[in-house]
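Limitations

Structures in this collection are predictions, not experimental determinations, and the ligand pose is part of the prediction. Treat each record accordingly. The example that follows, with 5-O-phosphono-beta-D-ribofuranosylamine as the small molecule, is included so readers can see exactly what is and is not provided: the inputs are given verbatim, and the output is the predicted complex.
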Amino acid sequence: MTAPKKRAAILISGRGSNMMSLVEAARRPDFPAEIVVVISNRPDAAGLDWAKAQGIPALAMDHKLYESRAHFEGQIQSVLTASRVDLVCLAGFMRIMTPAFVDAWRDRMLNIHPSLLPAFTGLDTHARAIASGVKFTGCTVHLVRPDMDDGPILGQAVVPILNTDTASTLAQRVLAAEHRLYPKILELFAAGLVTVDGNKSSTISDVNGEWTRFSPQV
Ligand code: GRF
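Predicted complex:
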């Protein structure tokens, strides 16, 4: 008997290209997760219209309309509960969550960050990576912990930095890597193939790591 699909929510704040890559991947009949709701804290997020057009419930919840972060998160939690969500995928969601919310979703909330964590947490990762002189950067999918861009690393994709790169050209290639990495990691995670040990994760059936490490590609 096949296991029921995990019910996943995606939280966005803008363009939503990572959300699109997750939605597209989840169309596969054998994909172990289904996207049941998309929530944006910005009503003008382009990704919301796209999700609606796909027939996915997509809600704007403007954080500015709530009196506190806790109230805002309370509303998000109500939607997640009503939608019987098992997993939350942050995909370009630009709000910091309180430790209470993060702890409520401990080991059930994933995020994608455009650098090889723990390097270059925070914003402007590509400009900072170029300025630092590192020769490779990339992206990371990790479980969310209360500290920003912290938590067990589930998978990473490496992207070389070219001498000619600007923050914008590098961002394009990293984004292409994000679109390959995030669906693969959600697939492994939703299938129950990832075990978490403290601040580390290991993928049971991936002894050689080829599913969770994406090699350099220009
Ligand atoms: C991505 O680069 C993601 O890694 C970062 O924010 C960006 C969101 O892009 N957290 P999109 O909205 O998924 O297109």
